[in-house]
Amino acid sequence: MLKALADYGRLMRVGTALARHDVILPGEYHSRLPLPAKLAGRILRVFGGRAKGRPGERLATALEKLGPAYIKLGQFLATRPDVFGVETTTDLSRLKDRLPPFSMAEARKALVDEFGAEEAAELFPELSDPIAAASLAQVHRLETSDGPKAVKILRPKVETLIDLELRALKRAAHTVERVSVESRRMEPVAFINTIATAMEKELDLRLEAGGSDELRQLAFKTGHFSIPAVDWTRTGRRVLTTDWVDGKPLTAPDALVVPGLDKVALGNNIVGGFLTQAIGHGVFHADMHEGNMIISPDGRLTLVDFGLIGRIGMAERRFLAEILWGFIRRDYLRVAEIHFEAGYVPADRSVGDFAQALRSVGEPIHGKDASEVSMARLLLQLLDFTHTFGMHLRPELVLLQKTMVQVEGVARSIDPGHDIWAVAEPIVKDWITQNFGPAGASKLAMSSLRDVTDRLKRLPDIMDKLEANLNQPAPEPLRRGAPWWAKYGFALSLAGLAVWVVIRLKA
């Protein structure tokens, strides 16, 4: 009961902040609202005042002031133009995450708590003042005999704060799902759970270290960008240490003022690196905004901050690759079929009608200059049809959609004429060739063989369980003459399984 009251108290604070920034019933939508909503909106504006900017900009400002959990919520909401519209989601994608730093005394205490007083003094002898500070952590520079390091330290008690805010958001999502049948298509509970899972991972810097190291190995292979090495000796649950990166983040006004910098190649590397990771390997940096991209004095691109790592399975990789390939080839029927095959559109809807809707999204982009065509906007416009075709939110694609919006936005800010389709085509084509050509058929055969082998390994255990069940006395109803299929159904099912295994082996 007390937890519920505390949660609703937090949600009231959120509502007050949104009202103060004229977000709940914004004046821009006054003419579209029914009379009671118009009156309520006017009352809210009397007490909250008139905020400046578009509704999306005001929402972003309100979420920034509410803290880290709501900043993250806003970044995820930026993937839902089907709910908020393209303009608002574009404004939300520019959310900033900056806060004043906490004290050096608290930073030192965090190091002692993590490593002990003696080891902390030995490992972190020359720690600088904070270089940058966000809502979850701040970064210091450390001079060592192996060169300079970047030390990331979580804010004091941030885990407790995030836990309380996420608990309130989960309560709000459950309430919305209970009272609104229409909201269930948007899966508010699954959506908030996705955010919660992502944030909980960000609060254990050992997980970030592991993700950083994994992507660093991939970066060596692809060459699109570099990633600093983790200093495992100086890394723990609340402290992460990596090699220091010289350069400026893309948020700096003069970051691109580098002699000989090829902006076209830089934009291509950002998008190409993301697509290669996501489609080719099923893992990607899921927070690729300008603040996490550093340009070195020699023009090289380095990624930092791996608190959010996105992962998608083979089915989702195939879904993304075939959608992009279908739009490149203007094969809208195939794109529609992919949505149905993946279960993203209910089977009782028309494939032809959905293909017609996709054509209305894809055809306007053909024949236009690259600077006028946005892949992210195209993918987001697909969501505009979710209501018409009864599509549900797919939590496993939320991070992918979010990052797609980010990377294209960054690439376009660097190179306004960036052609994301030209970058995507060879990556998608190579992946489809490898996975659906002869090499792909070979992989599929090996996967099927492993599946059959695993099932055969379990067959003796299944037979033992069957024998044990057959040796037990039958229940009274069966002894009195139950139908034959009730007595022997399990045995027949097992026999069918054995026949299926044999057929698969022969195939």
Describe the structure.
This protein is of the alpha+beta class and 507 residues long. The chain has helices at 2-20, 35-48, 55-66, 68-77, 81-84, 86-92, 104-115, 117-123, 158-179, 188-202, 205-222, 263-281, 314-329, 332-341, 351-362, 375-383, 395-414, 420-436, 438-471, 476-479, 484-506, and strands at 132-133, 137-144, 147-154, 239-243, 248-249, 283-285, 293-295, 301-303, 309-311. The protein has four domains: 2-92, no CATH class; 100-133 and 136-244; 245-436, no CATH class; 441-506. The strands form three sheets. The protein has a four-stranded antiparallel beta sheet. Strands 5-7-8 form a three-stranded antiparallel beta sheet, with no helix packed on it. Helix 1 packs across helix 9 (158-179) and helix 3 (55-66) runs parallel beside helix 6. The radius of gyration is 27 Å and the shape is globular. Residues 484-492 and 499-507 have low confidence and may be disordered.
Produce the secondary structure layout.
Elements: H1 2-20, H2 35-48, H3 55-66, H4 68-77, H5 81-84, H6 86-92, H7 104-115, H8 117-123, E1 132-133, E2 137-144, E3 147-154, H9 158-179, H10 188-202, H11 205-222, E4 239-243, E5 248-249, H12 263-281, E6 283-285, E7 293-295, E8 301-303, E9 309-311, H13 314-329, H14 332-341, H15 351-362, H16 375-383, H17 395-414, H18 420-436, H19 438-471, H20 476-479, H21 484-506
Antiparallel strand pairs: 1-2, 2-3, 3-4, 5-7, 6-9, 7-8
Helix pairs in contact: 1-3, 1-9, 3-4, 3-6, 4-10, 7-8, 9-10, 12-17, 12-18, 13-14, 13-18, 14-15, 16-17, 18-19, 19-21
